[in-house]
Design a protein that fits this description.
The complex is a heterodimer of chains A (437) and B (135). Chain A has two domains: 280 residues, FAD/NAD(P)-binding domain (3-Layer(bba) Sandwich); 129 residues, 3-Layer(bba) Sandwich (FAD/NAD(P)-binding domain), CATH 3.50.50.60. Chain A is 31% helix and 24% strand. In chain A, helix 4 runs parallel beside helix 11. Chain B has a single domain, classed as Cytochrome c-like domain (Cytochrome Bc1 Complex, Chain D, domain 2, Orthogonal Bundle). Chain B starts with 6 loop residues before the first helix and ends in a 5-residue tail after the last helix. The chains are: A alpha/beta (437), B mainly alpha (135). Bound molecules: flavin-adenine dinucleotide. Flavin-adenine dinucleotide binds next to helix 4, helix 5, helix 8, helix 11 and strand 22 of chain A.
């Protein structure tokens, strides 16, 4: 094997070009300055984007001083909370912690809320009063919910009509409500307009609710009231719903009066654009969203509520030295996924290291796959590879796309198995969580 | 990767491709470099130009970072999705190219992803993972 390895490696030099030749083993070489990058990087948010950024900063440049700020000692993923709701996954399997970051990579993990950022003075202020200085700041705060967007839907309303779009107590509440629902009850999910966290999420959620109801409450009805006329993997979801759940799930798009404008959480009622009132037994409202509030404090978000970034580096377009990754960004055509938050983190880490060394950032490359489960044995995907072209992000022409329609049961089953494999793989990559699939 | 590398497919597709690649490898072996030059690991930082810099972006490593989101850090996580670290480069490369050219029946997501890269990039990613130790 050694022999053929060295040959293909030498072959690869051709593709890497002259620069590669000078370095002997082009494909593997990091710029020499990279490993010894110096400076202090603060990362805000220990989710898919932030925890990955902290880990890869230390992996690639152990000499960097890296601090991760995250209020929770236990991170719960949104991915697979739908499986928990459907009763096919234990809640504890969604928990991750910061032991690997701290003990293996030497990241300083501070369990505090970042309250304010002063980009001129390059400091971040924590809730306990501590002030940290940074040379570069990476923000991955995820989303906050827009409590002002739907009439009647504020934080206290979410205690009766949960969103469960930020995981934790909300996920448990929704699960309890579903379990308490009578057979023959109506589950209503209110879905927002684009952009929002996890485009296929609402549709996977009703799939998993249907999976639960099919066995436990077969006379129940699931109504999806949508502010859009089209959604991610729509044909695949529609096909899968029909095949597995008959007409248990009804989707109402915007032009069929699916857009909800008002919520009455006490009566579990919603009212649409054209005045139709729907009554639920369990009401799951996914409201419009924006970048986590710290993005506003740092001055990186704009009127849209999201943070515009430079395509190549994900440095804020508004505040130099501050990088934003994950759901908080305005990074169309990339969807807001945990997968992309993870890959964005890795690309941005390299841009930060290059910047600290006064070098241009290397050419980035991002891939994404969003798995959704229609049943535990029926998975579907949408994938994409992204690049910078003319200073903007775009999908590499000819790449990406969704699973085929009319695929075999074996194919659907395999994508479901890969969904579970993906979860184990990314949980290992981000938090070092050891688990089988 | 190895999306459909179930036993059946391995014999139908993987094995012929593997044989093909190994043969190709042997044919090229005549003018190979000393094997010990193959020992450099990706983690090593090579010496560069006079200022100690190498004006090079490590394209393979950059691309491989996306792979880790399913295959684990350094491609070392084995689930229904296989680990990649330490797998023979000719096999990985042949698979990636076969995905890209839709020559893997029943493959799921890999054909859609492989189409996002040039053949050279896929070959260098294959090389990259093959040089990593499995553990
Ligand atoms: C139901 C559902 C299903 C999903 N399924 C998938 C899926 O299958 N695949 C997929 O790829 N994605 C999925 N997603 C999307 C995924 O959860 C997000 O894209 C991902 O979490 C984004 O990562 P992030 O780092 O931007 O934010 P997060 O993961 O939300 O992390 C943000 C972190 O920052 C912390 N934080 C916020 N503000 C501060 C502050 N001021 N100071 C300190 N810390 C702060 C928070 O506590 C949090 O831990 C799903 C989402 C939902 C809702």
């Amino acid at each position: 094997m050694k022999l053929s390895k060295s040959i293909s490696r030498r072959e690869s030099l051709k593709w890497i070009g002259v620069a590669g030749l000078s370095a002997a083993f082009g494909a593997y070489v990091r710029p020499a300055w990279a490993g010894s990058a110096n400076g202090r990087v603060v990362v805000v948010g220990g989710g898919f984007g932030g925890a990955t950024a902290a880990k890869y900063l230390k992996r690639l440049a152990p000499s960097l001083d890296v601090t991760l700020i995250e209020p929770q000692t236990r991170y719960i993923t949104c991915p697979f909370t739908n499986l928990y709701l459907g009763g096919v996954r234990a809640f504890e399997t969604l928990w991750h912690d910061y032991t690997e970051l701290r003990e293996v990579y030497g990241v300083r993990v501070v369990h505090q809320l970042a309250e304010d950022v002063d980009a001129d003075r390059r400091v971040v202020k924590l809730a306990d009063g501590e002030v940290l200085t940074w040379d570069r700041l990476i923000l991955s705060p995820g989303i906050d919910l827009r409590w002002d967007a739907l009439e009647g839907y504020d934080e206290s309303a979410s205690e009766r009509a949960p969103h469960a779009w930020k995981p934790g107590a909300q996920s448990r509440l929704l699960r309890q409500q579903l379990e308490a629902m009578e057979d023959g009850g109506t589950f209503i999910l209110v879905a927002p307009d684009n952009p929002y966290r996890c485009p296929p999420g609402p549709y996977e959620r009703v799939s998993m609710v249907a999976h639960y109801c099919k066995t436990h409450k077969p006379r129940s009805k699931i109504l999806l009231l949508d502010s859009k006329d089209a959604f991610s993997k729509q044909d695949l979801f529609t096909e899968g719903w029909k095949a597995n759940y008959g007409d248990m799930i009804e989707w109402v798009g915007r032009s069929q009066d699916g857009r909800v404008l008002r919520v009455d959480a006490d009566r579990l009622e919603v009212e649409t654009e054209f005045g139709t009132v729907h009554k639920a037994d369990v009401l799951n409202v996914v409201p419009p969203q924006k970048a986590g509030i710290i993005a506003d404090r740092a001055g990186v978000s704009d009127a849209s509520g999201w943070a515009p970034i430079k395509a190549r580096t994900f440095e804020s377009r508004q505040v130099p030295g501050v990088y934003v990754i994950g759901d908080a960004t305005e990074a169309a055509p990339m969807p807001k996924s945990g997968f992309l938050a993870n890959v964005q983190a890795k690309m941005t880490v390299q841009a930060v290291m290059a910047d600290l060394a006064g070098q241009p950032a290397p050419e980035p490359s991002w891939a994404n796959t969003c798995y959704s489960l229609i049943t535990p044995e029926w998975g579907i995907t949408v994938a994409g590879v992204y690049e910078v072209y003319d200073d903007v992000l775009r999908e590499v022409p000819g790449s990406g796309g969704v699973s085929p329609l009319d695929a075999s049961a074996v194919f659907r089953r395999q994508e479901a198995d890969f969904a579970r494999g993906w979860y184990a793989g990314i949980a290992q990559d981000v938090w070092g969580t050891r688990s089988s699939s | 990767m190895f999306d459909t590398l179930r036993p059946r497919h391995f014999f139908v597709i993987g094995l012929p491709l593997f044989v093909l690649c190994v043969t190709a490898g042997l044919l090229l072996a005549g003018d190979s470099e000393p094997a010990d030059q193959a020992e450099t690991l990706p983690d090593a930082v090579e010496s560069g130009d006079a200022e100690g810099r190498v004006p090079l972006d490590s394209r393979a490593e950059i691309i491989a970072m996306s792979c880790a989101a399913c295959h684990g850090t350094d491609g070392r996580k084995a689930t229904a999705i296989p680990a990649l670290a330490g797998k023979p480069a000719p096999v990985l490369e042949a698979l990636l190219l076969a995905y890209k050219r839709d020559q893997m029946p029943d493959a799921t997501v890999m054909p859609r992803l492989a189409k996002g890269y040039t053949d050279e990039e896929l070959a260098s990613v294959a090389e990259y993972f093959s040089a990593l130790s499995p553990e």
